[in-house]
Each structure stands twice: as C-alpha cells, then as structure tokens.
Write a structure and sequence with these properties.
The chain is largely without helices or strands. The protein has one domain. The protein contains no helices and no strands. It is elongated. The N and C termini lie far apart (37 Å).
Length: 94
C-alpha cells in the first residue's frame, strides 16, 4: 500500500519511512497510548465529536504504562477512573 500513496506537499518534513493510518467509525475509541517518537502526527477529524487527552510528559509516570511498549493498561477506564484501584491517576493534572 505504501506505493499507492503519495504524501501531499504540506510544507512539512514528514518522517516517511514509518507511515501509519488509523480509521474509526461512530462510537469507536482507542485505548490510552503514547505516540511513538518522530511520528509526525497530523490529526484529521471529519465529523462528529472527538476527545483527545494530552498528558504532560512529567506526569506520564502516573499513567500505569506497560514497560517497553507505547500503551497504558487497557483495563483502566480513563473516562471514569477508579482512584482506589489506580491512585496514581490523582496526580495527573492535564
């Protein structure tokens, strides 16, 4: 598929060797994750509502990250967090 797509000239120097594309329909959600280094994220949203939560880098230590990967624990409901089970979430101010 990489050969079927040409990057538009947006005036940005994009990291083209690791292209990624994500789609989601109505009601879809993505578990809490960290975007990889040099990801050159361009976020496009075409309709409806979308919520993006940005966490300060110094507060990511409270996110219950899984070692050596770019995701947090998937059993944490960040929309309605259980602070008794995940007390570190209290320290996130973002």
């Amino acid at each position: 598929m990489q050969n079927d797509f040409q990057f538009p000239d947006l005036g940005l120097h994009l990291f083209k060797s690791l292209p990624m594309l994500f789609f989601g329909g109505v009601g879809s959600s993505v578990f809490m994750h960290f975007d990889i280094n040099l990801a050159n994220i361009l976020h496009f949203h075409f309709g409806g509502e979308k919520q993006c939560i940005l966490i300060k880098p110094q507060e990511t230590k409270y996110m219950y990250k899984i070692p050596y990967v770019t995701i947090c624990r998937e059993d944490i409901d960040f929309d309605n967090p259980d602070f008794d089970k995940w007390p570190g979430l209290h320290y996130i101010t973002s």
